[in-house]
């Protein structure tokens, strides 16, 4: 430094002596680079600050005009030097994030030079035009606007408030959401907001009396119901990103009966504020084609932080069972968190940083999305390591003096979560849903850490069942029931797993026990009745379904189940009535549509059957029985071409299904395509060689094409398999002598 | 840290009033008879941290006004005209004695640089003696560094000390908020 200083002086002296030759370069540089609002600062401010700092924006003041910026210049210097602004917690070099708000060192330096030189405006003509912000919806009018039921009044002062507002999804159709905007009504007091999807409206049911007023709490748990629909998207709102636009192919789903829960972090402003938030939803035209999943590393159970401890460390890790791309990351702790780190150890030993936050501040928490997806191959181990400071040096410490702190959902408790949004990639075509494998690995890991973890055990059992490992699922449900013997839901799930595993007796026992444990919930009763249908105990099933009708609200499933029982008992007229009632309740009820279609075929009304079965096939395009029946209905209505196309579609779905080939053979024969019919029948017999009817049918086709010898051999084959096969014997007798 | 004797200014400025009230009338006496202490609360209508302290100042005023502590809400920034302050008062439901520090005389007198910031004076025979100047409490440590709630109440402690004739402690940290805008800008 000293040497440089000397050189400076020498040049200065030289310049005095020889002004023409030794021009004082540093001075010229300084003159040229006089930093002005118009030339250098406005572009920085418009790019990095104006999204919040505009009139009506979330920032406390606007920075769009020179006068505004000059007024705030000393603060701008302070907060950019300390890097409090723009808000950006991740350390550079530890994950490459999209929308990084971090200012470059050069920009920070320009602001410093500008403020220290008196914050000059420069030539206003050089300034770029300020950005324009719309006070209403940024993307135009949303397709659906949900509003908080009752406005909430935030008190004027005190600690921050965390409150959960329930917004029921009011539509009767499923929609996929491509973008969401939250209008908080008073952006300046809303620090951030998380939107959760409550698939079963469980939170609303837990808070029947007060959900309309909003429920206090920083974190919440919701019940995702009986179908595997893992959380898939970060629905995180912060003031500088008012609209959340999802990647192409990745909209998120909202079903009838779902609730959105708006979890808001509110900051008292000095006067009572009324919050009346709205959520705007933009529908996608197509359903999702890519299915990401949120994975969580957590160390909540290790959080037991002694007062005064300024270096309390917790860790977690999770091994990936499939290849994934990490799309985003959301680290979360409360007020004691200090250093939050997440990284991945690849199978080749490479360490890949996912995020590092050296100075955690819950007030500035955010979801961070990667500029490009981070590919992590199967076998990668995800790591988190969080450090907590429970001393009184930590100014965020909510306790004075510090007290022992454990995990919990109040702001005075702690949390240790690292959420990752991952998209499974390189998925084998015929393999299981990779998200189930992720769920399984995650829950297994949780159980290793906490063998009594109820949710992990339940989810693991459910994942096993969904992967078709029913015996394993049953074992896990039994383990859960040994700790929670009165858990009706686990008992019902045990029954379902046993049924799928082929243990109908065990299943029936479990369903019966589940009904006894919780007579008011209808799942187990329904499953028991369905099992009785499956075992052809139609009278028992009818009784059980009628019982359910007394207990449960009008339900299309129960009505159509009763219809199936009645149909089984041979009471087609009563069955038809029940199916019709089911359709009155739910015009898309598959069981009712399918069975009414079947009854229509049986009663010789193929056109009606076509309508019903087409509606059923629309609901379940992969259901082979439906396609088979629809083909039959087409064939009976004289629409051979439609019948053929149905069957060919079905065979594409299930090429090894012998009965589909046999049916196709018959339809082909009916439309005179005998040679093709023979080929299909041969195909059917190749798949199912011990079918006497099939050999008989092949014989008939061979005989019709004049291949007497082949026909004879087919009929004889049928008779070897079933010596009493009257049709084959009669056909054989009809053949001309060899 | 004790502060025994500080800045001394006349209680009533003969030559010039301290500022004006919202109706444009001069405020020339900060400590009418019976005042045991004078608190100046430097505020800005558009400063969020200043606004967040409104309930706290109101609480202290409710508690200490009956004991002869006079609270003045001083608006030093040029943007805070009587119209702006009036509408801000209505918005925040403030019923206080406002002074527009039109010449930033009070700002200079108290050496205030930030809103919110406070100064406590004691009237004496030869003028107002400054006993305390700085932060209200320790909730804000710096911009972006905030406690969930305050654990040290510097202003309240200062007022209590003044009323009890005890020595007044210096603030435990700097005032945090928005810089006061100098009036002499072009």
Can you give a write-up of this model?
The complex is a heterodimer of chains A (738) and B (186). Chain A is α+β, with helices and mostly antiparallel strands and 738 residues long. Among the domains of chain A are: 1-32, no CATH class; 33-126, no CATH class; 144-283, Sandwich (Jelly Rolls); 294-430, Jelly Rolls; 655-738, Alpha Horseshoe (Serine Threonine Protein Phosphatase 5, Tetratricopeptide repeat). In chain A, 42% of the residues lie in helices and 17% in strands. In chain A, strands 1, 4, 8, 9 and 12 form a five-stranded antiparallel beta sheet that branches. Chain A has a five-stranded antiparallel beta sheet with strand order 6-3-10-5-7. The radius of gyration of chain A is 35 Å and the shape is elongated. Chain B is an alpha+beta fold. Chain B has a single domain, classed as 3-Layer(aba) Sandwich (Glutaredoxin). Chain B has five helices and 14 strands. Chain B has helices at 48-52, 54-64, 82-92, 105-110, 154-163, and strands spanning 2-3, 8-9, 19-20, 26-27, 37-42, 69-75, 97-100, 114-115, 117-124, 127-134, 140-142, 145-146, 168-169, 178-179. Chain B has a six-stranded mixed beta sheet. A two-stranded antiparallel ribbon of chain B has the order 1-13. A two-stranded antiparallel sheet of chain B has the order 3-4. Chain B is globular and about 35 Å long. Mean pLDDT of chain B is 89; it is low at 1-7. The chains are: A alpha+beta (738), B alpha+beta (186). The A-B interface holds A 60-61, 70-72, 74-75, 78-79, 82, 84-85, 156-160, 188, 267-271, 335, 361, 363-364, 395-398, 400, 411 and B 46-48, 50-56, 77, 79, 91-93, 141-149, 151, 178-179, 181, 185.
